[in-house]
Specification:
Length: 102
């Protein structure tokens, strides 16, 4: 999975934030649209999350601070049978991990 320029800009800001707050961790959720088989979408969403993890790692964020989880097509943000919805569902989302230290 390739990162868009907008995604790179967002991830750069997130890596700067993570650099300032080293006790926090991120959960990186991978998602896919509804097309394709369950197995294919699960694998694809895992690759999306891994791409984000590798990019943040290249910006100096330790792998031990980044967890990934593939959701496949199970958690869409948009539900309709149209490319406008499919494109919104093809994504990786970074979430401040609930396990963050105090």
């Amino acid at each position: 999975s390739d990162l868009t320029p907008n995604a790179v800009a967002t991830l750069d800001k997130q890596s700067q934030w993570l650099g300032r707050y080293p006790r926090y961790t991120f959960l990186i959720e991978g998602h896919a649209d509804e097309r394709g088989t369950r197995d294919y979408n699960y694998s694809l969403s895992g690759r999306r999350a891994q791409t984000v993890r590798e990019y943040l790692g290249s910006r100096g964020i330790g792998a031990d601070r980044l967890r990934t989880v593939p959701y496949g097509k199970e958690r869409p943000v948009a539900v309709c049978d149209d490319i406008s919805c499919w494109s919104q569902n093809r994504r990786a989302v970074t979430v401040l991990d609930a396990g963050a230290g105090s």
